[in-house]
TrEMBL record:
It comes from Teichococcus wenyumeiae. Belongs to the TRAFAC class TrmE-Era-EngA-EngB-Septin-like GTPase superfamily. EngA (Der) GTPase family. GTPase that plays an essential role in the late steps of ribosome biogenesis. This is GTPase Der. GTP 1 binds at residues 9-16, 56-60, 119-122. GO terms for biological process: ribosome biogenesis. The lineage of its organism: Bacteria, Pseudomonadati, Pseudomonadota, Alphaproteobacteria, Acetobacterales. Residues 3-167, 179-354 form the EngA-type G domain.
């Protein structure tokens, strides 16, 4: 999914000219009669080193021509639904008009990132004219001349800085790719026993392979959904044991396994409960951004199961809030009982970790969260938060924009993350929150 950019603004401010300049070919019809019929199209362009889709919204200007502002609104509503970024173009030569201002006021309420572009600033006095565009309230405007090609590189770099982050992996949608699973936990929790139970007859050693950490061995098996590759660190573990002694967990090996995996299964010894060492591994998984499922192993040997479960859940509640709601599967790797519940739980958590929330839904949540619990004051003034985007999943990452957003205190950030997690049902998934200040 390429980021989508819409160019909007009053008729005749130079949208089509800018569009053509960005696409690099003469595609849209340029005409100085306002509202010339044009088909609405999408074009691929490269902006600031990124491939993007430019939405040509010009055709929509044909909407009922009651007022200029009404027409702009009609044409822009559709664009806003689809766009990751809006370029709001004004004519700096003509100066801001009442409809520019009315439209900007409306646009500010639409919760999409907007860049103000002051066009027709060529020649002397151009930059001065552009200053007026500050009044639109979208931060620093970019001054350009679409016709003469001035200010375009500035526009490219500014746009690049406002686009959602590039997805980390191209292969994201590749259905044939196996799910990558790391089985982590302290020594003797039962990791090897669990691996054997999962692999069963199908055991197939595939590593070492190029690109994988040296000494990492991977094995694959099929669950009900598809292939699963276990990023096994047996080799690394063995080495670590020699170096550090048998009872030591190798943090290095665990981190390497986590880096190569999508989901981590944290194996706990139910007889020992959840202690500091286990929490440390869980936090490493969280820090690496992995989805986590807990395998509560040796369940066969537990006498008071109710107390054991409660003990674990209390500790999770108080000490692992970052992974709130994490799934706990009680099992016995040795007897095989309950092991069949593990992969469905892994798949489900993985799906949440993969989930993209559409911008519209995201902002409905965002407004609700803000109205239920207002952002706090900083230096006596309320911190205003404008809109949210979700540039990536794996793990889910939300970016919130607003003037002084960076000043938001930790407890309010936590509130937003928890509210997001509840609203979109993402237990056991680390959620990243980034705050970006706008002026
Ligand atoms: P749209 O209706 O917003 O798509 O505007 P157009 O791209 O059709 O341009 C409207 C008019 O403004 C045309 O006559 C263009 O040649 C002119 N125009 C576009 N960009 C510039 C510019 O940077 N400087 C000047 N002086 N005129 C421009
Ligand atoms: P690892 O160090 O995490 O790979 O742990 P192992 O798989 O080597 O298991 C450590 C010990 O726990 C072994 O003696 C296993 O037999 C025992 N064990 C593993 N799973 C279970 C289980 O489900 N129930 C019981 N009672 N013992 C288990």
């Amino acid at each position: 999914m390429l980021p989508r950019i819409a160019i909007i603004g009053r008729p005749n401010v130079g949208k089509s000219t800018l569009f053509n300049r960005l696409v690099g070919r003469k595609l849209a019809i340029v005409d100085n009669t306002p509202g010339v019929t044009r088909d609405r199209k999408e074009y691929e362009a490269r902006i600031g080193g990124r491939d993007v889709i430019l939405l040509d919204t010009a055709g929509l200007e044909e909407a009922p021509p009651d007022t200029v502002a009404g027409r702009m609104r009609a044409s822009s509503e559709a664009a806003i639904q689809q766009a990751d970024l809006i370029l709001f173009v004004v004519d700096a030569k003509a100066g801001l008009t009442a409809s520019d201002r009315a439209f900007a006021a409306w646009l500010r309420r639409q919760k999409v990132p907007v860049l103000a572009v002051a066009n027709k600033t060529e020649g002397r006095g151009g930059t001065m004219a552009a200053l007026e565009a500050y009044e639109l309230g979208f931060g620093d405007p970019v001054a350009i001349s679409a016709e003469h090609g001035e200010g375009i590189s500035d526009l490219h770099s500014t746009v690049a800085g406002m686009l959602p982050e590039e997805p980390e992996e191209e292969e994201e949608d590749d259905k044939d790719r196996p799910l990558r699973l790391a089985v982590v936990g302290r020594p003797n929790a039962g990791k090897s026993t669990l691996l054997n139970a999962l692999l069963g007859e199908e055991r197939m050693i595939t590593g070492p392979e190029p690109g994988l950490t040296r000494d990492a061995v991977t094995s694959e098996f099929n669950d009900a959904v598809g292939r699963v590759r276990i990023v096994d660190t047996a080799g690394m573990r063995k080495k670590a044991r020699i170096v550090e002694g048998l009872e030591q967990m190798s943090v290095g090996a665990t981190i390497n396994a986590l880096k190569e995996a999508e989901v981590a299964v944290l194996v706990l010894d139910a007889l020992l409960g959840l202690d500091e060492q286990d929490l440390r591994i869980a936090r490493l998984a969280e820090r690496e951004g992995r989805a986590v499922v807990i395998a509560l192993n040796k369940w066969d040997a537990v006498e008071d199961r109710i107390a054991a479960r409660r003990g674990i859940e209390d500790t999770l509640q108080t000490s692992l809030a970052q992974l709130k709601g994490i799934t706990v599967v009680a099992m016995s790797a040795a007897t095989g009982r309950g092991v069949d519940k593990l992969m469905p739980a892994v798949r489900e958590t993985m799906e949440r970790w993969n989930k993209r929330v559409p911008t519209g839904e995201l902002n409905r949540w965002f407004e609700g969260a803000l109205s239920r619990h207002q952002p706090p004051l900083a230096d006596g003034r309320r911190i205003k938060l404008r809109y949210a985007t979700m540039p990536k999943a794996r793990p889910p990452t939300i970016v919130i924009f607003g003037p002084r957003a960076e000043d938001l205190p930790e407890d309010y950030r936590r509130y937003l993350v928890n509210s997001f997690r509840d609203a979109f049902d993402m237990p056991g998934v680390p959620i990243r929150l980034q705050l970006r200040g706008t002026s």
